[in-house]
Specification:
- The chain is built from 8 helices and 2 strands, in the order αααββααααα.
- It is mainly alpha-helical.
- It has a two-stranded antiparallel sheet.
- The longest helix has 31 residues.
- The N terminus and C terminus are likely disordered.
């Protein structure tokens, strides 16, 4: 696996400031307002204590974050399963009796398709970040700061040669790439490399991958209604204004400190919720999609290299040349 941290052990995205700093002005205003309420209550002998309650939401935003992470895991699992099946079932032993050119073509087709599976992960990440076009240009990516193309290689070498993206016409690249994978399954079934139930199960995996991609896209494109966000801000501010009245009789000047701490907590929760609503970006609290995708790429490529080694030199995967896949003796079986 790749080391997803750099330098001092933090992700390169960890330079983002914490979400609590922008809340200092409203917290300060509520503290000053609390001090005014205490002063009026103690010096003018007015009973200003009022009951108050508040309901705020944070679960919805966290559900979006958690669901996004789970759907990414579904896509990763599907890529792993399909890669394993393609490599294991299209081994050199599958094509017994085939001539060498046909065998080489079949193995090249398998490798090409496995690389496309890895490209689907990158394409999904870029699509969710609205980085249109970056996935089509070999050896380039979009800068998260400026949005301009950079010369950082990413995954152009994984895509089919001559691929034309259709993002400008409303078709996401992940969906385009699934066509290549399904066509490979069909070709392998027709050639006898996969039997019927096996090919059917692979299509189920591909459909599961596509469904998870669609659900992640729904999270990205469906924002929290503006009316709800405005109402939540109003309720939060109203609660901060009423809270000193509820505390002043019992707490006195401690009301200032208590209100400041309570409002700091509530504004912080509200800020965290606003960050988690779109969990696919570059913020510190977002899903670490870059590191996750790079790890899966290395994992699949290790399997691919092992598969190529066995195809060129013989033997069994993970056992070395001349290794046997038979049952071992003397180990309690």
């Amino acid at each position: 696996m790749t080391n997803v941290f750099h330098g001092n052990g933090e992700s390169p995205r960890h330079h983002q400031r914490t979400p609590t700093l922008p809340f200092a002005p409203p917290v300060f205003v509520h503290a000053i307002f609390s001090a005014l309420i205490v002063y009026i209550d103690q010096n003018l002998n007015r009973n200003l204590g009022l009951p108050a309650s508040i309901v705020f939401r944070n679960q919805t935003s966290y559900n979006r974050f958690w669901d996004g992470r789970n759907y990414l895991s579904v896509i990763i699992t599907s890529v792993r399963n399909l890669s394993r099946s393609f490599l294991a079932c299209s081994s050199i032993h599958t094509y017994i009796g085939a001539d060498k050119p046909a065998l080489q073509a079949a193995r090249a087709d398998t490798e090409h398709t496995v690389r496309i599976l890895v490209a689907i992960l990158y394409a999904t990440k870029n699509h969710l970040r609205a980085e249109w076009g970056a996935e089509i240009i070999p050896g380039t990516a979009l800068s998260p700061n400026t949005g301009n193309p950079t010369t950082v290689p990413e995954y152009g070498d994984l895509l089919p040669q001559g691929l034309k993206g259709l993002d400008d016409r409303g078709v996401g690249l992940p969906l385009q790439l699934t066509f290549f994978v399904e066509q490979y399954i069909k070709r392998s079934f027709d050639s006898g490399a996969f039997h019927g139930p096996q090919a059917s199960q692979m299509q189920v995996q591909l459909n599961t991958l596509t469904e998870a991609y669609g659900r992640m896209e729904t999270i990205r494109l469906t924002s929290i209604p503006v009316a709800l966000l405005i109402h939540q801000k109003q309720v939060l501010s109203l609660f901060g204004c009423m809270l000193p009245f509820a505390l002043v009789d019992e707490m006195g000047w401690w009301t200032v400190f208590i209100v400041a701490m309570v409002m700091f907590t509530l504004y912080g929760i509200d800020g965290i919720g606003s960050q988690l609503e779109d969990p696919f970006g570059y913020d510190r609290n977002d899903i670490r999609m870059d590191a996750i995708v790079e790890d899966i790429r290395e994992e699949v490529f290790v399997l691919l290299e092992e598969w190529k080694r066995v195809g060129e030199g013989g033997g069994e995967m993970f056992l070395g040349k001349g290794g046997s896949g038979g049952r071992r003796t003397g180990v309690g079986f």
